[in-house]
Amino acid sequence: MLNKKNEITLNDILDRDSLTEKEIINLNTKKKSIPVEYFRKNLFNATARESRELTRNKTIYDDNQTKIQVNRSLHQRHRDLLSIIFTDNKGTTTPAKDGSYYIHTSLYDLSKKMGYSPLQGINIINKFLGDLQQTLMTIDTKNVGVVRHQLLGKSYFDKYNTKEFKIEIPSYTAKYHIFNFSVEIPKEINQKIIAIPSKYAKTKALVSYILSNKALKNGITFENVCNKLDIPTKNMMSKFKRELIDNKQILEEFNIVFDEETKIIKYQKLEGVKFHRGISKEEIFEILEDERKNEREQEELEKFGFKKDKYVGKILKHKSSGLFGEEIKTSLIKDIEVKTIEDENKVYRLVIKDDSNEKDLFTSWFSIEEIDNIYNNLKKEDNE
Question: Both 173 and 122 in a single domain?
Fold first, then answer.
């Protein structure tokens, strides 16, 4: 395990084969949510054009501290498919130790919810799905390092037996979800977003961006939104402004209001939209340090012979005379647990469990000197 806090990097955390209980709990709460960065950082272009593999990575965010790049050009229909996969599926598997899991769905359902006829839609869904599976997001953070993850892993279809279709969420992808803030949009609201026509792709991108933020009390300027959605030219901005004015009723369905005069966009949080916090690198470090501390305590416990049955009863008799009046039989001892309470002074609490491992038969305090003396005296008795 790592020794110092400043030695832990994001790669150290991502490369672990086993997640902590806290991480698994966090992941389970996020299975119907999507990282907000997917919507806030312009992962999906504000268009409905065909996806393509790029000759070089496209930078979708750069603040001189963190740079985010992708290797494919995605659009709003990819956004629709990804959101359905997470928010409106047939259930998920229990995460493996490394965080990976599967989402159960069906190509027929995906096609129908995307608004396609089944036969026509399945081929389109497979194309979009392939685009998402081939998309790598690269995050380069100064003083942290470079990490990559797929948006989706492989998919599997049991054509001849169960007809089951499942999509893998790989370990690195699951960990990215754990470490980042995410938004959970109810499937009913998400279907309204999907229903926005492709010719209004910029409006759809705006709705996704706004909903991935909490209520905007003072609003956000039109120019700021154009910057976020990568709408750079005056001509494109003018067309987008007209699109928002024409789609006033669509925006109102999502509690979004565009003021033409002030050019301010305001949003009141929709009921049902939830946000889930991520677990920071610092929190993971503390968990790993606790695990490391427990490992050290167990090593010290074994070092002083507490695992040797022939010594346990004598130690208890030595320490508990007057409390029990007789030696506790070692056959009753299920487990021995030591907790450090003052690391510098090496003070321990010794707990003996019964056969059910539920009831404490004995609890006492030992200093390191006391343990050492008892252990050495018992060894002398054995040698006499």
Answer: yes
Last residue of a domain, one of 228, 257, 272: 272
Same domain, 17 and 144: yes
In the chain, % helix, strand, coil (3-state, to 5) comes to: 45, 25, 35
In-domain check, residue 283:
no
Tokens of 255: 């509690």
- Give the total number of structural domains in the chain: 3
User: Is 254:211 a contact under the CB 8 Å cutoff?
Assistant: yes
Q: Does residue 1 belong to any structural domain of this protein?
A: yes
| Nearest-5° Cα angle at 203, 201 to 205 | 70
154 found inside a domain:
yes
| Structural domain of 60 | 1-184
The answer to whether residue 236 is domain-embedded is: yes
Read off the pTM: 0.75
Q: Which residues are paired to 224 by β-bridges?
A: none
Q: Are residues 177 and 225 in the same domain?
A: no
Tens of pLDDT, residue by residue, the chain (384 residues): 343 444 556 666 777 888 888 899 999 999 999 999 999 888 998 876 666 666 688 888 888 888 999 999 899 999 999 999 999 999 999 999 999 999 999 888 999 999 998 778 888 999 999 999 999 999 888 777 788 899 999 999 877 777 789 999 999 999 999 989 999 999 999 999 999 999 999 999 999 999 998 877 788 999 999 998 988 889 999 999 999 999 999 999 999 999 999 999 999 889 999 999 999 877 887 777 777 776 666 665 555 444 444 444 445 444 443 333 334 344 434 444 444 444 444 444 555 454 555 554 444 555 656 655 655 665 565 565
Q: Is the dihedral of CA 194, 38, 243, 251 positive or negative?
A: positive
Distance CA 257, CA 182 (A): 24
111 in the same domain as 29: yes
Q: How many CB atoms lie within 10 A of CB 247?
A: 21
Residues 136 and 213 in one domain: no
Residue 358: CA count within 13 A, CB half-sphere: 1
Q: Are residues 226 and 311 in the same domain?
A: no
- Cβ atoms of 207 and 254 within 8 Å: the answer is yes
